[in-house]
Amino acid sequence: MSAPPLWRIGGGTIPLDRPVVFGIVNVTPDSFSDGGNFFSVDAAVARAGALVAAGADVIDVGGESTRPGATAVDAADEIRRIEPVVRAVRAAHPATPVSIDTVKAAVAEVAIAAGAAIVNDVSGFRLDAAMAGVCARAGVGVVLMHSRGGVDGMAAYAATPDADVTAAVQVELRARVVAARDAGVASEAIVLDPGIGFGKRTDASLQLLADLPRLATLGYPLLVGVSRKRFIGEITGVDTAADRDEGTVGAAVAALARGARLFRVHDVRAVRPALDVAWAILRRVTDARA
């Protein structure tokens, strides 16, 4: 096997020779499965500590919900939510990179100054023309996610892509990569996310997961965010998002087998060992074929 790739982030790199798990810390009152649970700094830091103890490689902090029907948050309010949390998590866990989940350049800039090494933009740099430049100048890692529309509509099914969902996502992600590279973001700093569930009905989400090898031909590591999503509830009949962790494990393991290497999840304790066991098996298969 060839040497494992590295993802360049602010201040270092993340090896992709094993599954990389992002543990979610939502400092919002209205996120779809845990809104309000970690709204205070102390609660958010305690949550981050539990995620790190469970095996999270990255802590992903978000201050604006993208759930269906979410209301956009202005930059000042979002900064008030995330800045003390990013700073406190970095102080408590200096060996664990922090990612900031935002579509706003001003928020990203403050988070980076507070210690964030990754910008996870669910709009793929579409919604703020200054975002790519901020990330390029700071030298942080970036996650470019596929979506359509604004924060208040990108999760709605009205934004469902074309009949060949994978082809549409490929074309639109390629355009986001070009925008990032044109602004000076290093190729080695880019990770792509197909935006599972964002404007995509169950059939489209399942097709994208099955087609991850096609998306991998874009030449960048793939992150998937399947955690507690609507398609899992529709398949399993579980209405409450927080009760969909078993389905999340299944989707994450399947995505790993199809080529994903990074995973954004709520329940790290459930997903981490499942991915590690699946990875050990998949590596054995790959080594046997080499």
Can you walk through the features of this model?
Helices cover 43% and strands 15% of the residues. It has a single domain (18-289), classed as Alpha-Beta Barrel (TIM Barrel). The chain is an alpha/beta fold and 290 residues long. The model is unreliable at 30-37 (pLDDT under 50).
Short description:
The protein has 290 residues and is of the alpha/beta class.
Q: Supply the CATH architecture.
A: Alpha-Beta Barrel
Distance between the termini: 7 Å
Give start-end ranges of low-pLDDT stretches. 30-37
According to DSSP, the number of beta strands is: 10
Q: Looking at this structure, what is the CATH superfamily?
A: Dihydropteroate synthase-like
Number of domains: 1
- Reading the helices and strands in chain order gives EEEHEHEHEHEHEHHEHHEH
- Count of helical regions: 10
Helical fraction equals: 40-55%
Residue share in β-strands: 5-15%
The CATH topology is: TIM Barrel
**Quick one: CATH class?**
Alpha Beta
Largest sheet properties: 8 strands, parallel
The radius of gyration computed from the alpha-carbon positions, rounded to a whole number of angstroms, is 17 Å
Walk me through the topology.
Blueprint lengths: L5 E4 L2 E4 L4 E7 L14 H14 L3 E5 L12 H18 L5 E4 L3 H10 L3 E4 L9 H8 L2 E5 L19 H18 L7 E4 L8 H9 L1 H5 L6 E2 L5 H7 L8 H13 L4 E4 L2 H22 L1
Parallel strand pairs: 3-4, 3-10, 4-5, 5-6, 6-7, 7-8, 9-10
Antiparallel strand pairs: 1-2
Helix pairs in contact: 1-2, 2-3, 3-4, 6-8, 9-10
